[in-house]
Design a protein that fits this description.
six-stranded mixed β-sheet; alpha/beta; Peptidoglycan-recognition protein; about 200 residues; globular; immunity; 4 helices
């Protein structure tokens, strides 16, 4: 085979990989670690939501924080194990989890009903920041990732363009998402100070 014949397939593969990378980011999404990337166990039941979803609920996991993927993957997997084994839920309760390193971990993902806020699961997306944020905020990378994730959801038609955003403590008896993080999200676009759901 000529050198040209060897280069053409290589050029096509490189071009295809570049196109895929651009296509994956065309919705402005942050880096999302898919379920296989953190060794998620299979869900025992999946219930789908009607999209676009109208509400977003922000949580914290009340675990240690993490930056590096190996540590974050272990934390996310341990949360899933607790939710499935101890809580007897079908899967991890959150739709997405965000690490201080800036990666977003796909929980149950888009248009699936979670188990994060009793009474509101079927009509909201639950996003949890990995860590405990009573005194300190998540990292700037994590906050940027959350902003990109929300815009990504709107761009993909998963979230309504006029979605309303809440801290979990507004909807149930919990300290989540922590005082510092709650004060932060009160300044975000779409925050609703008086939920009527």
């Amino acid at each position: 085979m000529s050198l040209f014949g060897k280069l053409v397939p290589l050029i096509l593969v490189i071009g295809l990989q570049a196109w895929i990378a651009v296509a994956q980011d065309s919705n402005g999404c942050p880096n999302i670690v898919k379920r296989a990337g953190w060794s998620a166990s299979k869900s025992s039941n999946v219930t789908y939501q009607i999209k676009p979803v109208q509400h977003v609920v922000i949580h914290h996991t009340a675990t240690q924080t993490c930056n590096e993927m190996p540590v974050c993957k272990e934390i996310v997997k341990s949360i899933q194990d607790q939710h499935q084994r101890q809580n007897k839920w079908s899967d991890i309760g959150y739709n997405f989890l965000i690490a201080n390193g800036g990666n977003v971990y796909e929980g149950i993902g888009w248009h699936r009903v979670g188990a994060h806020t009793r009474g509101y699961n079927s009509k909201s997306i639950g996003i949890a920041f990995i860590g405990e944020f009573t005194k300190d905020l998540p990292s700037a990378k994590a906050l940027r990732a959350a902003s990109k994730l929300l815009q990504c959801g709107v761009n993909m038609g998963e979230l309504d363009a006029n979605y309303l955003l809440y801290g979990a403590k507004q909807l149930s008896a919990t300290a989540s998402p922590g005082k510092a993080l709650y004060n932060e999200i009160r300044e975000w676009d779409h925050f609703d100070p008086s939920p009527v759901l």
